[in-house]
Here is the input.
Amino acid sequence: MRFVDLGTVTPEYSVCVDKVLLSSCSEDTLLLYSRDRPCISVGRFQREDETVDLEYTEKNDISVVRRASGGSNIYSDEHQLTYSLIVSRDRLRMDRNESFAVVCGCVVNALSILGIESEYKPVNDILVNGKKISGGAQARTANAILQHGSLILDINDDVVRLSLKDSKKRAYDGLTSMKECLGRIPSRDEIADAIIAGFSDHFGYIRKECLTDAERIMINRSFSY
Here is the structure.
């Protein structure tokens, strides 16, 4: 398996990368990226007008994008990192709940390496002292599985609450962050190394690489539309 740190990218580009790699799945890949601006990521089957304050997001240049995976709408910005695992079905031969447990377990391992003791709460949350520090979502094709999730570095609470309608704001009452847990935000390299180590326990050796030229061409073609 390879590890690719995309760096800081636009919300639209990050969604496009996930979708292209899921559809092609030419190689099992663990991605890490952050978004360069505030964003509401809308679940594949969600109606954005039901939970997103579209008037506020438009006025404040907050992107609204639809991701490949299901689940509820979430807010993200530069205060979160996103991991994204794309693997063939042969690599993860299990049902949705079992695969959530495996992948979230890898994140729990990574957090432990960083000094944060957490626990997996089915079906897709990771908690520290009862507060959520990471959540995940999945998408599946006939050949591949995508699971991606947040890693909360810090919380921009005011913007979160203004971006979402009342029915969704309550979900953000029980959040925590790496900054709250550790008193600091670990460096990007620290987090990347912890993620690699945490996932290596289950998936074996993970090497650092870049996207291939062919993948970049596919992403750029898809991103242009």
